[in-house]
């Protein structure tokens, strides 16, 4: 079996930074709580949990300093902000509750957050093109009032009929989708339209690498969590470029029928997929 791996795939620098920060604090013996999954890969998160990380969904799940018995209350809780970021009021609440804070927000997500704040101050109606349910988008829109999220063509109807509009993107969106929706927005005839492309360059490189690989193989395997936005985008791009594509989380989800009658396969992976999952998949696939 011939297996080709995309030149660009797997961990991005933002994910690596978040994991390194978590491991460093845990190695120091700190009492670390992560507000939501640190990254969109449960196997990686499970490994961090084994090292002592605690994942919570709400701040009130974290004991206040002094609430635990003295034997258990030796370390002040540290709240780790996930790589996707959060709303500014969440960070403020962390401080008000007396917790330490460690911010693992990707620098590119931070840029998007600051842009939303700046564009609002400059008098623009701010639009974010992306998934309204994604934690990154939910955090970014908290940096200005009345931010509109556009995920599909129908959402453009929610925009005002006129005025000054500024548009940015969720960092993991495909350039194809962003440019298409911006083009449709531009047809509305706003007095002023400012567009800032905030798509992560690493995301773009991974997408272009996957598209190139699609042309060389009979079937594509995209590795990563089901709820990983950039992994889903990779799978959709591969399908749109004519490749028979399977989005799998790991080798355990592989079925021999996926390779029936085929001799060449391509493998790529989302930005939250560790090298060991990619390596295990490739090694097993080569022996099919």
Q: What can you see in these coordinates?
A:
This protein has 288 residues and is of the alpha/beta class. The chain has 3 domains: 95 residues, Cobalt-precorrin-4 Transmethylase, domain 1; 94 residues, Rossmann fold, CATH 3.40.50; 88 residues, Cobalt-precorrin-4 Transmethylase, domain 1, CATH 3.40.1010. Helix content is 36%, strand content 19%. It has a 4-stranded parallel β-sheet, sandwiched between helices. α6 links the parallel β8 and β9. α7 runs parallel beside α8. The longest helix is centred in the first third of the chain and has 15 residues. The radius of gyration is 21 Å and the shape is flat. The termini are close together. 42% of the residues are buried.
Task: Give me the secondary-structure topology.
Layout: E1 2-5, H1 13-27, E2 31-35, H2 42-50, E3 54-56, E4 77-81, H3 88-96, E5 100-103, H4 107-121, E6 125-129, H5 135-140, E7 148-150, E8 164-169, H6 175-186, E9 192-195, H7 201-214, E10 219-223, H8 229-240, E11 244-248, E12 264-269, H9 275-286
Helix pairs in contact: 7-8
